[in-house]
């Protein structure tokens, strides 16, 4: 993986963020990452092919929602909560609240999640 581009705060647009959050898999990934922990891509579980999961992670990164870090051959991802809260105050909390109450993205998790076994 070449060095990934992460939009600066002023480059993040509402249209890009809302577009990235328009998919249940991506909302599920945001729900998983909302705990503040950096996750290895290999830890993430979703009912899609690995290449499709990679696409979803790229969409989130390109919108500025996540930050990806490469360490050797492994990639790690984390939610850019602080940046999102500064640029779009309250948006992430609102999305997460509704996603939780409507169970959107609940089929996405991490490798040790018993719900996905």
TrEMBL record:
Record carries keyword DNA-binding = yes
* Record's keyword annotation contains Transcription: yes
Task: Identify the residues that the record assigns to the HTH arsR-type domain, covering every copy.
Answer: 6-103
Key words of the record: DNA-binding, Transcription, Transcription regulation
Record CDD domains:
HTH_ARSR (cd00090)
What PROSITE patterns does this protein map onto? HTH_ARSR_2 (PS50987)
Q: What is this protein called?
A: ArsR/SmtB family transcription factor
Q: Organism source for this protein?
A: Microtetraspora malaysiensis
């Amino acid at each position: 993986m070449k060095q990934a581009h992460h939009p600066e705060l002023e480059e993040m647009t509402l249209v890009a963020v809302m577009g990235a959050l328009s998919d249940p898999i991506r909302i599920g990934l945001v729900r998983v990452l909302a705990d503040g922990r950096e996750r290895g891509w290999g830890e993430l579980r979703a009912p899609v092919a690995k290449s499709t999961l990679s696409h979803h992670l790229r969409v989130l990164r390109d919108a500025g929602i996540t930050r990806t870090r490469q360490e050797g051959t492994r990639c790690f991802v984390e939610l850019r909560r602080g940046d999102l809260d500064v640029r779009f105050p309250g948006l992430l909390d609102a999305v997460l609240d509704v996603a939780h109450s409507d169970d959107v993205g609940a089929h996405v998790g991490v490798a040790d999640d018993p719900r996905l076994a």
